[in-house]
Amino acid sequence: MVSTGLTEKLVDPRDLLEMLHSNxxxxxxxxxxxxxxxxxxxxxxxVREICVPLDGGTTCTPDCYQKWEEKLARVMPAKQLxxxxxxxxxxxxxMPLPQHKNLPDYLIGCVAFERQGRVTxxxxxxxxxxxxxxxxxxxxxxxxxxxSEAELAIRKIPQIxxxxxxxxxxxxxxSHTTQRLEAVQKLNRDLADCTDVDHAMDIVxxxxxxxxxxxxxxxxxxxxxxxxxxxxTLGLAPDSFQLDNSRLDDYLETSSCQPEVLPGEELTTLxxxxxxxxxxxxxIAGRESRLGIIVILDxxxxxxxxxxxxxxxxxxxxxxxxxxxxxSHQQEQKISARLVSMISALSLVTSSEELYHQILEMSxxxxxxxxxxxxxxxxxxxxxxxxxxxxxNKALAKAMTVTFGEGxxxxxxxxxxxxxxxxxxxxxxxxxxxRPRFKTKSFISLPLVTEERMIGVLNLADxxxxxxxxxxxxxxxxxxxxxxxxxxxxxxxxEKAGKFEQLSIxxxxxxxxxxxxxxKRLQEEFxxxxxxxxxxxxxxxxxxxxxxxxxxxxxxxGDKVLCKAASLLRRTAREMDVVAxxxxxxxxxxxxxxxxxxxxxxxxxxxxxIETESFPGExxxxxxxxxxxxxxxxxxxxGVTSNELIHAADLALYRAKAMGxxxxxxxxxxxxxxxxxxxxx
Length: 681
Fold this sequence. Notes:
- By secondary structure, this protein is α+β, with helices and mostly antiparallel strands.
- It folds into 4 domains: 157 residues, no CATH class; 134 residues, Beta-Lactamase; 158 residues, 2-Layer Sandwich (Beta-Lactamase); 169 residues, 2-Layer Sandwich (Alpha-Beta Plaits).
- 42% of the residues lie in helices and 20% in strands.
- It has a 6-stranded antiparallel beta sheet, sandwiched between helices.
- Helix 4 runs parallel beside helix 8, helix 9 runs antiparallel to helix 12 and helix 15 packs across helix 16.
- The radius of gyration is 44 Å and the shape is elongated.
- The relative contact order is 0.05.
């Protein structure tokens, strides 16, 4: 937080005396200020300061001072202007000043004036330096003034003084405004460097207190996917009011993004129990969403303060939105990685009951749901039966069925379209009788559909943070179920055939062996090779520019390409070879009892098959067609463990990519990892 160095002092008396003296009417006068707290002695000291010596070196007599003192004592309590001339050629006056916390109580002045043709000279005196003494204008005058001039000047002082005072305050306010604006600009830069929300809010909160001296402030924020919450308060207890989320959401949705003033009775509909006559509301608005609101109570803000607070709030909104974007990107990366691990875990499940349970649990984890159900369609009677439940009584769940086309799940199954409900009490698509089933007001119901038919419905409800489900939540769970549904469909088929264990060793998308089975078979080949002193080879194959293909043609098209490529690999490889999906667009082939020379024939046959096959959209790729690169390693020459052999084949694959793709490379010891570019795809 930058230190502003701002002060509340409005006027320096010495500056004011200088400005008074700059007026031509007052230039001849000697001026000083007096405050009542200085007492009688201070008053007479001020009088003696301005009653300067005459040209003969004589001074005013004690009798003169005494008369002046007596007159001042009479007129000052009445706050009246008093003027007096003396026999020594001086005209003196005392004038009450407007009441102001930073001004003295009186202005006292003295001037030499023309008297019987004599020229009176006023010598300068130094300004008082000690604290608590009078402040005297150090200027001196070189000529006497006429009585009429003196009278005019004294008469004009009440008009001149407010003008000078207003000008001085305006100058000071301008200075303060400039300093505040500089401080706000510095704070904007500080906000741009913030790495978390709490740090940004600390900067703004401190600014509101230090720069603008605000008495009571409420700051409300909305985190992604959550309801509005009071982030912090200044000058009032958080438990002195209650935030109405629903009404505040409605207000922010219908209001503009501009600051506005709400009367107290309207504000209390948003903040129950809050007592205030009026409040300034500053929405924290991003480009696409409302991020929160700052409420300033009990203060009539000056327009310039409103403008500067708005600048600060806009900078805060921009930073919060950027932080939200970064956090969202990081969250999506985590979710993507979690999806991959979830799908891999599902491929290892060995029973249909466990498969249904895991799909429901993983779906709930993705969306932060505390309850839900997975329902499958019984084609015989058209009913939906719960196969797995979360947050429900298991006995009740097992006994529950839903007729196709009826209820929420039945409607979703019949229509084939998902349903996202944000507020069950307001959504006309949902009967109110369904309300008791849910702890919160929001839920998702999603159809589980294969390419050929409807197989069931997935229901998720009751977010743990109390917020509503979003379209982003729907996209996430659809992405996951897109991989899970084929497993459910295949599980039913295999279960009927008594072959469910097949699921534990195959990749759900391509039908090839999975990585788990691959590792098991590699260990078997190592054992056989050591016992029988027999060679075998491993081929790592990777589709070229597949990420680019996904970006251009979409992930669904990419999945179809993977399935087609897998089918071609299985068909091209020998019957004794083990073809597995290693991960993503990468495949691994074990060639038992095969030398490097023999493996080249198999690898080249695979490469040519992929190269000559037609794939939709492949013309957009750099080579104008979809191709594959391959790397080959051999046991025992290139590795005696799984990790060593796979690593050697991977280095050869990297070399094939670096050499231009669409080629096969045999591993050689000369291939060093550090010399290869970080190249995939």
